[in-house]
Amino acid sequence: MSIKPPQPAPTWDHRPGEIGTLIKDLIAKDRLLMDKIAALPAGECNFQSLALSVAETDFDAVAEPLSFYQNVSADKALRDASNEAEVLVRDYGVESSMRIDVYRAKVAAEKNLKESGQWEKLSAEEKRLVERMILDGTRAGLALPKEQRNQLTTLKKELSQLCLEFSKNFNEEDQRITFTEKQLDGVPKDVISGYTKRTEGSEEVYDATYKTPDIFPIFKFAKNPDTRRKAFEGYESRLEVNVPLLSKALNIRRELASILGYKTWADYVTEVKMIKNGKGVIDFLDDLEEKLRPVGLKDRETLLALKKKEHEELGLPFDGEFYIWDYRYYDRKFIESSLDLDDMLVKEYFPVTVVVPTILDIYQNLLGVRFEEINGTTWHPEVQQFSVWEKDSKDESGFIGYCYLDLYPRSGKYSHAAVWPLLPGHDNSDGKRSYPIAAMVANLAKPTPDKPALMRHDDVVTFFHEMGHVFHGLLSHTKFSRFHGTSVARDFVEAPSQMLENWCWEPQVLEKMSSHFETKKPLSPELITKLVKSRYVNVGLFYLRQVFFAKFDIKVHTSSEDQDYTALWNSLRESISLVKSGKLTPGQGTFGHITGGYDAGYYGYTYSLVFAADMYATIFKADPLDPARGKRYREKILVPGGSREELDSLKDFLGREPNSKAFLNELFGSQSANL
Predict the structure, then answer these.
(1) How confident is the model at residue 56 (pLDDT cuts 50, 70, 90)?
(2) Edge-to-edge strand order for the sheet containing 196-200?
(3) Residue 635, exposed/middle/buried by CB under 10 A (0-12, 13-18, 19+)?
(4) In this protein, which residues make up the domain named Peptidase M3A/M3B catalytic (predicted)?
(5) Which of the residues 137, 182, 216, 515 has an alpha carbon 20 to 30 A from that of 21?
């Protein structure tokens, strides 16, 4: 029987014209509330009178879904209206974060709470809320003189616009790159059949987009190095329009850091993260690069020998160099030849219609929940909608929240995979619960005339990872929305999902979620062994690429002056990633993380891997599908969200302080003891 959820699902029937009005009304209402708080006499400021978390929660509940349309709507007018609405929201966010009168009310409330003895009666989460809200104000520069505060407001608004424009260019990018059939030699037929075919002069040509399902097979399979070079240089240059935006954004960040009294933007950003300062990031990355470099050089030698052999066989000139457009191609060739593992064969075992329900099934059993598909309104007919419940719930008290899956590419849609926590969970002032909503947006390959929609193993790993964020958003249970789910330190936020990627390399799980699209048989034990072995093949080059992104990010956020970022991007990549470039390409224009919330934060992907490896090896490795272990993970990592220090959650889960042994052992095996 179907139980009616205590909270209805949102409707997704907004029209472009009403979005701006809704946002303006919302801002006006919030401004009135802030005026009311600011007008309170200092002696009357306390936890209740400030309604400390209510305003923020109510505001986000309306604004988040409306600004989400720009990433997923098929209607350009709606996407534009949504983007314009977010401009208003961000501008208002800057304005309200700079309100000295509201900041003073918060400072007065803390003082009153402490002096009246009420402070001790607050829960740990309530104290954390007060402390964080005051820290917000201090970090926003509210303790500074008026002139500097005004300067900060102007600069922050400008920065926010630049970041929005950068990401809009990303979503709207819709260029094509053209090849003949001969140039595409080696690229799988089912991939080519998805390209647009047309006649140019007397020959037939194919137009590919720069979206992942189109372009990555060219990097991995095109035999002609010139095709790969052309594809790569086009891909890296596709967002040249973002180059001046990034330069401006970096200049503004330097100025902001200086006004706020921080040596660098990186020091400002990392103050509230686990790593604490910019120097910590540089030390972490230097140490990692030093350990990876010898392994990467060995990988490079192996792949270069493979290239030399192939060039001789095909009669192609060989200049002794290993180029960036060679990396994915020879990495695949090496895996195929050394492990006899064919990426395209593996893909046949992962039809979307089997993998997605199986992954949902694994999560449901592990974490004790139940998904029920419902047919409510969504933003696009392809979107699936679920209500989520405690596994054995009999009534509405077992309701957890809603989840949306938007899995296939379409024009104007966000082009990678990500999760939007559209609504956080929290307690309402009447004591009732407000339930969370999470949306997962991906770009899986669509069906072709002769094959169903299939997933590469990489896609399976990504899907598992992103579902980890979905469950962090659904299963967290905090009093305040501010600490809900993935609202944790940015250098910890990826750890739970990275830990869950391990399931995609476990033989029993691989068998469970694979089913050949024709024979319906799972992956054979032999194929599974090969796939598992491929995980750490060329691991040195793989992680050096991550170190390159992280070092570019930390360099531009610790340097004191402007520079030629295209030159820096290319020279850093060459020295760190050990791959040569051809012409200089403005790849920094495609580095969305740097304007999308990961500024001075890209290191966090690798930093959090240390915690992920430790959590998996310590708790789950012995029995990855054990619901008792899943329950422990849910209670100690997911439920608290950001309501306590991340290190405390880790210690509670592991039963000790975290360490990097499992991570080093994963990467370097038995050699790790000497590192």
Answers:
(1) confident
(2) 176-180, 203-209, 196-200
(3) middle
(4) 221-666
(5) 137
% of the chain surpassing 70 pLDDT: 99
- Alpha-carbon distances of 116 from 44, 132, 256, 585, rounded to whole Å: 12, 20, 37, 62
466 belongs to the catalytic site: yes
**Helix, strand, or coil (residue 654):** helix
> What per-residue confidence (pLDDT) applies to 52?
67
Of the candidates 56, 233, 348, 466, the residue annotated as catalytic is 466
Three-state SS letters, 423-454: ECCEECCCCCEECCEEEEECCCCCCECCECCE
Residue 662 and residue 647: Cα distance in Å, rounded? 17
pLDDT attached to residue 586:
98
d(CA 438, CA 472): 9
**In 368-494, which ranges are continuous DSSP H helix?**
457-475
Tens of pLDDT along 449-469?
Answer: 889 999 999 999 999 999 999
The continuous run of DSSP H or E covering 167 comes out as: helix 146-172
Phi-psi category of 320—alpha, beta or left, where left has phi over 0 and alpha has psi -120 to 50? left
Alpha carbons 614 and 442: distance in angstroms, whole number: 28
The full length of the chain comes to 675
pLDDT tops 90 at residue 346: yes
Check: pTM over 0.90? Answer yes or no: no
Query: What is residue 669's predicted lDDT score, i.e. its pLDDT?
Result: 76
405 Cβ contact list (under 8 Å, min separation 6)? 356, 383, 384, 386, 439, 440, 442
Q: How remote is the C-alpha of 342 from its chain's centroid?
A: 28
Cα 296 to the center of its chain, rounded Å: 26
What 8-state DSSP symbol labels residue 401?
E
Distance between CA atoms of residues 215 and 232, nearest Å? 9
Residue 586 contacts residue 243 (beta carbons within 8 Å): yes
Which is more confident, 430 or 51? Answer: 430
